[in-house]
Amino acid sequence: MFEEDKKEELGYELRSTPGKGVGVYATRNFPRNSVVVIGNPVKTAEKNTAWTTQVGVDRFILRGGLSSKVNHSCSPNVGYRDNANGGMDYVAFRDIRSGEEIVTDYAMGNHVIEHMPECLCRASRCRKTITGWKDLPDEVKREYAGFHAEYLTVMDANMDERLN
Ligand SMILES: [Zn+2]
Asked: Do 39 and 55 form a contact (C-beta atoms < 8 A)?
């Protein structure tokens, strides 16, 4: 257990989920746009793997504490936001009530996802496979504006430049 994950201070804890192993659950309410889980990088990584998070065009980190235990959902209640520690916080994408599982869309933080199994989120809008940002439909990208890693905007702009 990391010091920064003391639940009485931060408002979340690790619990077992029905069918997905462990997950992170809110122990208090969080209003939309508030920081839910602070992301502290443990170390930088050479390349992208199933355990890393991409935080820049060619920068990857291993996440510390419970932030690494947040499960994916195609209907997320938290998004990613770059922070001053060189990592990314999870920020409430909608109001979250105490007792809800904290879930994010991994595409909000990762440009490419190649190591993930089929999605088990059971959301009505489930994409069936956990895909990265580059494979998201444009309308979902627009919906996630302000709640995804900033470098993804840079990568989209670079892509547009190559096409034009
Ligand atoms: Zn899904």
From this structure: no
The domain 3-159 belongs to what CATH superfamily? SET domain (2.170.270.10)
Question: Residue 70 C-alpha to ligand 1 middle, in angstroms?
Answer: 14
Tens place of pLDDT for every residue, the chain, 164 residues? 455 555 457 799 999 988 878 999 999 999 999 999 988 777 888 787 777 788 888 888 887 788 889 999 999 999 999 998 888 899 999 999 999 999 999 999 999 887 667 898 989 999 999 999 999 999 999 999 999 999 999 999 887 777 76
Give the distance (Å) from ligand 1 centre to CA of residue 105.
8
CA–CA distance, 130 with 147 (Å, rounded to integer): 18
* Secondary structure of residue 76 in the 3-state scheme: coil
Cα of 127 from ligand 1 centre, angstroms: 5
